[in-house]
């Protein structure tokens, strides 16, 4: 999925060999954070993706993470946190009954990081674990979220895994649960599971629910999910608070929500609803996602940057796939490694 053709008019893609020092003097650095997605570690030999078009480096993904953490630790003066965008281990671990062991191996690497990690949940988390298990695991980083005492409507429900935090004055990050509506990881006897399965089968009549064949809305496959109205209402309340307080907001979710930064089959079920909430506010500057492995980028009609990060799992040993985002008062600068391109993303003008 190559998206470079329409990028150049809306954003600078920096030369891989250029130094970020050339732009550092324009405005003062506020803070930096790391991004990595789709590690999908498993103690397995290399294999192919579902369509047998891409190699997956299951075992080597842990070495890529190790390299990323070493580099982030060297940047620790300005690195406030790291965003892990989901799919931390591969679904094959469940098949071989080694999910917990593999998760511990990856978390052991993250423990070497000098900054806190915010974990997002993707489809592979739910191939390995139930939602109840994840809620009680180290992948639940909701405790790192902020509480706004005088705005109780900004406190998320326990019915979905989402929260927000403000690492620096006038900047807020919101982690969304892209599998709040899903048939993965849920108790199959629950009304929510049954409602989601009913909707999925109405949208996708294929016997294989992971197949988008013949669908007018190809995002309605089992490996995607969506946002409940309850979560969208909470999201709207947080953005209202950020508007009022003149904050800039970065939204994070495993699944992309804009068709121009993703394959059509890798979008959130109700991505349009999420976009509608974002577009009804002025504060959102960027949406960060993973899931597609190929990466992608667009800037939408409201000036919001959408970045889909390249996946570690499909990154050969000689390359890399992570980035550091440097946040300034007027822009964010992504310094990518390996497959992840450098980008300068200016905030929209009021």
Structural features, described:
This is Manganese-dependent ADP-ribose/CDP-alcohol diphosphatase. Helix content is 24%, strand content 19%. It is α/β, with parallel strands linked by helices and 350 residues long. The protein has a single domain (31-346), classed as Purple Acid Phosphatase, chain A, domain 2. The strands form three sheets. It has a six-stranded mixed β-sheet, with helices on one face. The chain has a six-stranded mixed β-sheet with strand order 6-7-8-9-11-10, covered by helices on one side. It has a two-stranded antiparallel sheet with strand order 2-3. Helix 9 links the parallel strand 8 (248-252) and strand 9 (284-289). Helix 8 runs parallel beside helix 9 (271-279).
Structural class: alpha/beta
| Fourth-tier CATH superfamily name | Metallo-dependent phosphatases
Low-confidence segments: 1-22
What's the oligomerization state? single chain
Protein name: Manganese-dependent ADP-ribose/CDP-alcohol diphosphatase
Subunit structure: Monomer.
Enzyme class: hydrolase
Domain Calcineurin-like phosphoesterase: 32-293
């Amino acid at each position: 999925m190559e998206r470079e053709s329409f990028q150049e008019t809306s954003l600078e893609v920096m030369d891989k060999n250029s130094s970020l020092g050339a732009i550092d003097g324009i405005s003062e650095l506020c803070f930096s954070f790391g991004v990595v997605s789709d590690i999908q570690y498993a103690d397995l030999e290399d294999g192919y993706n579902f369509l047998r078009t891409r190699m997956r480096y299951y075992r080597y993904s842990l070495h890529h993470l190790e390299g990323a953490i070493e580099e982030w630790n060297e940047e620790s003066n300005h690195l406030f946190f790291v965003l892990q965008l989901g799919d931390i281990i591969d679904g094959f671990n469940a098949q071989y009954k080694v999910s917990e062991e593999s998760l511990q191996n990856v978390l052991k690497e993250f423990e070497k990081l000098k900054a806190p990690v915010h974990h997002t949940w993707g489809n592979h988390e739910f191939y390995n674990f139930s939602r109840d298990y994840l809620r009680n695991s180290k992948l639940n980083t909701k405790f790192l979220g902020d509480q706004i005492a005088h705005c109780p409507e900004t406190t998320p429900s326990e019915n979905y895994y989402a929260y927000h935090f403000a690492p620096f004055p006038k900047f807020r990050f919101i982690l969304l649960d892209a599998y709040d509506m899903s048939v993965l990881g849920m108790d199959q006897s629950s009304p929510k599971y049954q409602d989601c399965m009913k909707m999925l089968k109405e949208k996708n009549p294929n016997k294989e629910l992971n197949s988008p064949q013949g669908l007018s809305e190809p995002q309605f496959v089992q490996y995607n999910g969506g946002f409940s109205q309850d979560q969208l209402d909470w999201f709207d309340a947080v953005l209202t608070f950020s508007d009022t307080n003149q904050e800039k907001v970065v939204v994070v979710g495993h699944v992309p929500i804009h068709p121009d930064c993703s394959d059509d089959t890798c979008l959130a079920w109700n991505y349009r609803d999420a976009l509608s909430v974002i577009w009804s506010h002025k504060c959102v500057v960027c949406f960060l996602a993973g899931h597609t492995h190929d990466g992608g980028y667009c800037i939408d009609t409201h000036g919001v940057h959408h970045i889909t990060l390249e996946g570690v799992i499909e990154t050969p040993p000689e390359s890399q796939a992570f980035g550091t985002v440097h946040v300034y008062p007027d822009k964010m600068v992504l310094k990518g490694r390996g497959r992840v391109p450098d980008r300068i993303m200016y905030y929209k003008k009021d």
